């Protein structure tokens, strides 16, 4: 499973791969809170918890995966 905070391509986009939904939700809530504290004028940030299958379907326009369990596939600016 993947926890995602923010939108891909945004400077506020962060994500994390894990196995437990509760663990990922806790990480996402903490990350969201930290981002809001650092940027008080920022509007709401979307939070998603998605399956590995769904995450691997999401790609950048050039075809690279946005989320992956393989570090060689990861877009470096987004890995948390």
Labels describing this entry:
single chain; three-stranded antiparallel sheet; 30% helix; 15% strand; 80 residues
Strand order of the largest sheet: 2-1-3
Structural class: alpha+beta
Global morphology: globular
**Poorly predicted parts:** 76-80
Largest sheet: 3 strands, antiparallel
Integer tally of domains: 1
Q: Over the alpha carbons, how many angstroms does the gyration radius reach?
A: 12 Å
Give the count of helical stretches: 2
Considering DSSP H and I runs of 4 or more, what fraction of the residues is helical? Answer: 25-40%
Could you walk me through the main structural features you see in this protein, from its secondary elements to its overall organization?
By secondary structure, the chain is α+β, with helices and mostly antiparallel strands. It is 30% helix and 15% strand. It has two helices and three strands. Strand 1 and strand 2 form a beta hairpin. The protein is globular, with a radius of gyration of 12 Å. The C terminus is likely disordered.
Please give the structural blueprint.
Blueprint (H helix, E strand, L loop, with lengths): L1 E4 L8 E4 L3 H18 L8 E4 L1 H6 L23
Antiparallel strand pairs: 1-2, 1-3
Short characterization:
The chain has a 3-stranded antiparallel beta sheet with strand order 2-1-3.
């Amino acid at each position: 499973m993947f926890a995602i905070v923010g939108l891909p391509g945004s400077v506020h986009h962060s994500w994390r791969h894990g196995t437990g939904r509760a663990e990922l939700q806790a990480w996402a809530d903490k990350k969201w809170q930290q981002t809001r504290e650092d940027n008080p004028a920022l509007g709401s940030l979307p939070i998603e918890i998605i399956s590995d299958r769904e995450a691997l379907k999401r790609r950048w326009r050039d075809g690279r995966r946005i989320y992956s369990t393989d570090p060689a596939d990861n877009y470096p600016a987004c890995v948390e």
